[in-house]
Structures are given as structure tokens and as C-alpha cells.
Amino acid sequence: MKFGAYFIQPVERADVFVVDIKPSARKRNPNVGEVVNREGSTHTFESRQAAETWAEEFVSSTRDRVWIQAAHPADRSDVDGYLLSRNTRGAVEQLERAYDKRRRRLRGGDQSAQSGLPIE
Questions:
Q1: Potential cystine with 25: which of 46, 85, 105, 115 (Cβ 3.0-4.6 Å)?
Q2: pTM of this prediction?
Q3: In this structure, what are the phi and psi dihedrals at residue 6, rounded to the nearest 5 degrees?
Q4: pLDDT tens digit string along 45-93?
């Protein structure tokens, strides 16, 4: 298998780091999706460092961020780690807008006034 400048040679299981690509990474990063379609969702590397270097090749912006996360010790699958991503597009943008609105208001730049319920 080849991706970029990295060649992965099949070796004994004890000497490899097996990575499974999770759907979140495939959906979030189009380059990961292409690799899954071409080569499948499970990949074998010589070490975790080699897997992390491979994952860094997919990152072209913070929006497309993917990373290698070690599998949980109780995970019974044959993988050592997962290529993951997080869909934060909507939530982060909403938080940033709320923060900007509050910051403008505190600096006196936002003319909208907050008001509570009328007290009678």
C-alpha cells in the first residue's frame, strides 16, 4: 500500500499498528473518503508514529481535521487505533457568534439592549 511517500510492508501482527477509519473521518474529510473507497477502511502501519504522520497528510484546514486515537483497552477488535474526526461545524460556529455578540455588547458596540421580563 502506498499513500504519499509512505510504503507499508506487511509484517508480523506484533510489529504493526492497525488503524480503522471511522465514518466521522470519512464524512468530514473528502480525502479520507477517497482513501476508503480506493483502499478500504483498515490500514496497517509500522508504528503509531507512522500512522500519525499518515493522518497529518489529510489535514488541509482545521475544518478537515482528523487524528489517530488509540483503541480503548477493552476494545475487542483487531485494531490498535482509529482515524477520527469530529463534526463541530454547527456547534462551534454558534458558540463563536454568541461570544462575539457578548463581546460587542460589553464593549458598548452593540446597540441591542437585553431586557428581562417586566416586573409588576
A1: 85
A2: 0.61
A3: -105, 125
A4: 999 999 999 999 888 765 678 999 999 989 999 999 999 987 655 555 5
* Contact in structure between 80 and 60 (CB atoms under 8 Å): no
d(CA 83, CA 85): 7
CA 87, 51, 35, 23 dihedral sign is negative
C-alpha cell of residue 74 = 477493552
Instruction: Find all residues with CB under 8 Å of 19, minimum gap 6, and list them.
Output: 42, 43, 44, 45, 51, 68, 79, 80, 81, 82, 83
Whole-angstrom distance, CA of residue 59 vs CA of residue 116: 45
**How, if at all, do strands 6-7 and 2-3 pair?**
antiparallel
Q: What angle do CA 79, 28, 86 make, to 5 degrees?
A: 70
Q: What are the grid coordinates assigned to 73, written together?
A: 483497552
